[in-house]
């Protein structure tokens, strides 16, 4: 109430945010803090020219969002709050450190369908793509933006996703050895492929890039699962992608699939994604013959025995 009564006084907003932050570690105060997200974001929007207030407000938002996720709660921010976050992104376009904080907040918020829809409605996607292009070297920003893109790339308006495949592929290429970033980028590519954002010329290079991500990060179950789902989506669209898996210059994609399954044989999500990929590949006669020659039926039988009730 104190903050809302004095929106125009920067010191009141700064002190209010600092005081709210003092309750972050108090468990009983958390339900009240959840109700303060709008007040915090509006304070940030009202005083865009105060870098200290922006940083403290964003840090507090992150603390609240982190605790909410830990407790299995999903934050559904309304359109006004989403608009505030977008304005903050645009105002502090040059501040890499602050953008890193803000993009982490956007990643957490986009886990909510309602919040993601509000972010889409205010036009956040082109800004995320611009941030990725500008800060391709920054692994934290790349991870957060790709994860946010994964949650946001479910839209009837694909025009706003123009260029998303190219920039997400560039992220994956640049950070192949960073498992967390690569996982985030693979998930974003999966979402983009489901949205029909890839052109015919994208199918082969994207399939090769996804295979590289699987080879470089075999131990990451979520990356393997979402990478295989992205490959399955590509193969459904194009035989070229299926042939790219078979004939990859860095080694047989079939052998890679076998290796990944044996590494994650107790992960039903990975097994399901691999089965879906093999099912899509088997729709092409030439590919099916090659799969048979490499004894893929044996692997399928092994999976069936491992998951008889799935």
Helix content: over 70%
SSE string, helix = H, strand = E?
HHHHHHHHHHHHHHHHHH
Instruction: Give the structural class.
Output: mainly alpha
Q: Oligomer, anyone?
A: single chain
Distance between the termini: 53 Å
Low-confidence stretches: none
Strand content: under 5%
What count of helical segments does DSSP give?
18
- Rg (CA only): 22 Å
The count of β-strands is 0
Which term fits the overall shape?
A: elongated
The major sheet is characterized as: none
Q: Averaging pLDDT over every residue, what do you get?
A: 90
Descriptive notes:
α1 (about 10-20) runs parallel beside α4 (about 50-70), α10 (about 165-175) packs antiparallel against α11 and α11 (about 180-195) runs parallel beside α13. With about 300 residues, the protein is an all-alpha fold. It has helices at about 10-20, 30-35, 35-45, 50-70, 80-90, 95-110, 115-120, 125-135, 140-150, 165-175, 180-195, 200-215, 220-235, 240-245, 255-265, 270-280, 285-295, 295-305. It has a domain at about 1-90. Its EC number is 2.7.11.1. It catalyses: L-threonyl-[protein] + ATP = O-phospho-L-threonyl-[protein] + ADP + H(+); L-seryl-[protein] + ATP = O-phospho-L-seryl-[protein] + ADP + H(+). This is non-specific serine/threonine protein kinase. GO terms for molecular function: ATP binding; protein serine/threonine kinase activity.
């Amino acid at each position: 109430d104190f903050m809302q009564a004095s929106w125009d006084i920067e010191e009141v907003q700064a002190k209010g945010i600092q005081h709210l932050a003092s309750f972050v570690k108090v468990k009983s105060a958390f339900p009240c803090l959840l109700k303060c997200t709008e007040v915090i974001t509006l304070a940030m929007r009202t005083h865009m020219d105060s870098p200290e207030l922006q940083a403290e407000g964003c840090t507090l938002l992150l603390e609240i969002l982190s605790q909410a996720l830990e407790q299995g709660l999903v934050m559904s921010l309304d359109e006004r709050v989403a608009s505030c976050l977008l304005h903050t992104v645009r105002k502090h376009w040059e501040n890499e450190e602050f953008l890193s904080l803000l993009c982490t907040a956007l990643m957490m918020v986009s886990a909510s369908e309602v919040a993601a829809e509000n972010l889409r409605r205010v036009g956040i996607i082109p800004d995320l793509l611009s941030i990725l292009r500008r800060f391709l070297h920054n692994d934290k920003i790349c991870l957060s933006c790709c994860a946010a893109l994964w949650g946001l790339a479910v839209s009837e308006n694909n025009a706003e996703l123009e260029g998303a495949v190219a920039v997400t592929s560039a992220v994956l290429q640049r950070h192949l050895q960073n498992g967390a970033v690569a996982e985030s980028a693979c998930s974003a590519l999966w979402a983009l492929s489901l949205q029909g954002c890839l052109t015919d010329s994208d199918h082969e290079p994207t399939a090769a890039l996804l295979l590289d991500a699987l080879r470089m990060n075999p131990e990451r179950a979520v990356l393997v699962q979402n990478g295989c789902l992205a490959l399955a989506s590509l193969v459904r669209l194009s035989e070229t992608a299926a042939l790219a898996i078979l004939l990859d210059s860095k080694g047989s994609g079939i052998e890679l699939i076998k290796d990944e399954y044996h590494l994650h044989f107790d992960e039903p999500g990975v097994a399901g994604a691999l089965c879906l990929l093999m099912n899509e590949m088997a729709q092409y006669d030439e590919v099916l013959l090659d799969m048979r020659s490499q004894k893929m039926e044996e692997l399928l039988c092994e999976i069936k025995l491992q998951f008889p009730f799935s």
